Amino acid sequence: MKVLPLDKLREALNIMANDAEVYVPMLRDDISGYFQWADNPADELALDLLNTYLSPKNVVIPQTEPMYKFKTSKQDVEITEVQVREGARIIFGIKACDLKALENLDMAFLTMGFEDEYYKARRQDLTIIAQACYKPGPACFCEGMGADRINPAADVLIHELENQDYAWEAKTSRGEELTAKIAALMEERDVTLPQAEPQSRKVDMTGVSEKLAEMFEHPVWDDLSSRCMNCGICTYVCPSCYCFDIQVSNRGEAGNRFRCWDSCMYREYTMMAGGHNPRDYKKERYRNRFLHKLQFFNERYGANLCTGCGRCVILCPNGVNIIEVIEKVKEVKLDA
Amino acid sequence: MNDFTNKAREIAKRLLADGTVSVVLGWEKGDEPYASAPTAITELAEVDRLIIDEYCIHEIAALLTDYRDGTDKVAIFAKGCDVRGIIRMIQDRVIPRERLHIIGINCPGMKDPNEYARAASGFGKAPAAEIAAKCQVCQNPNPFIYDEIIGDLQKVEPSNERFASVEEIEKMTPDERYNFFAQELSKCIRCYACRNACVACNCRTCIFDESKPQWVGRSTDTVNNMLYHIIRATHVAGRCVECGECERVCPVGIPLMLLNRKLVKDVDELFGPYQAGLSLEDDAIPPLSRYRVDDPDEFM
Fold first, then answer.
1. Which candidate, B84, B103, B216, B102, places its Cα nearest to that of B150?
2. Does ipTM top 0.90?
């Protein structure tokens, strides 16, 4: 099998970065995320981490994304620049959970008769180098959400070997093309792939979506939501939460329109122009998040909008845990 | 602390059974040894979910905003820091003292469940500290306003650390200081966890949720992130109870207590030594919430 030695990785990333934006798990000021590789000495590669606290969704949906610039004069508006960002992008080391989340984002932004041009521009020329995940953490439950953590569908699949070199398998023609560019850095070796350690957290989603459809008014939401403080951590670190708002910033006659992440945990999210808010209380906002993840998305796209990465479980300051929510939902007895 | 849990359940059962309160705010256990989480118990049959252990670090008084519109009585388990938060809520008219039944917990210091979750997760490198850093320098482990109390009085180790890190920042040149905060605040993802965990952030409608006018832009750039944090720090000046929750809950590790302590220090210097949330007496209202003829007015 082809092997990319660890000490050749920076060089490989530099070659890839010649004609693409390359996103790599990195530490920046102690924050781990998928940041753009620029061979900057201040950025520390975070390949020894199981995953990053910030998800890789910023590669296709940046938190703040310019849309277009405009100028007004009297009654006229002129759009001076449309800021659709096409171009080659590579994401390196993405895990099955986050890759499955990317599939969710594709469904939301590219299917059902609607294509989002900003998303498409970032997504269409994206090469995916996925990393097989042999040692899941205590918060991981991607298998329960249907991810194949050892063999996720990607352009290239890499396996971290015992000596930290990467066994390298090109899986698609796009992956072959990329591999050819760094072929000189690779070695041909007999390798032993690691043994997959089992995932300790189990979750069985059978019937959950259907049951939730009967539970909108159920009192269990009062109890479940009581600990939530309605911040947006879960939605912003989630690899599959994709809600955004469209905003404008004006300076005199010129301005620019941009979109930015929004969160169903926020009161402003559902605030209507007339002042009415259909989700005025935290229970309603909390319920919406779980129903979107586990019911609504299922009904529309046939998939859960949770991929078991575990970030919200790790980072929620008040201990909200989606697995506990699923278990509670299963325990609930519905009146016949 | 097992004893605490038994006592907590005993008390909660009594209060719910005799109708003293309609809800009990406390903690329950999640599915990891470190996963303690705030909860609201309303049914007698659910009381045995309550626990008090060494991971109950959350400033539970922040949840009182959920009950501001009711008339029922609320029981709340409260460590020393939580009592300061409760005083914040009473002084800010979120909830009157008469609607609260406070069960004090003399607190030996807590571990941060998030620190433990992060350390176990494989996502980060930092090991968990035994007792959370903010608890190690706590000056108020023992509740001083309560209806009943659990546990033995804790000894307080005097600490001079309160303004030490602020003084370090004050030594910087303005440019250095700007760059330091620009760097730190550029990490902000605007999840508003610092605001929502804060007992001083109890406004019905937060300025950052307003859209007509929109006071602060929603884009995550240094300017708008700074505006958010500076406005928040200024707004809680004189009202911050220094519980450190904003800093604890921040998912990107911004040292928010630096900003808050700087404002605490400024209030001290302008209005005389003051600590928020230590007394319910009339003369203990935060300096910026009252008017006195001898208030400083050099700016006029």
1. B103
2. yes
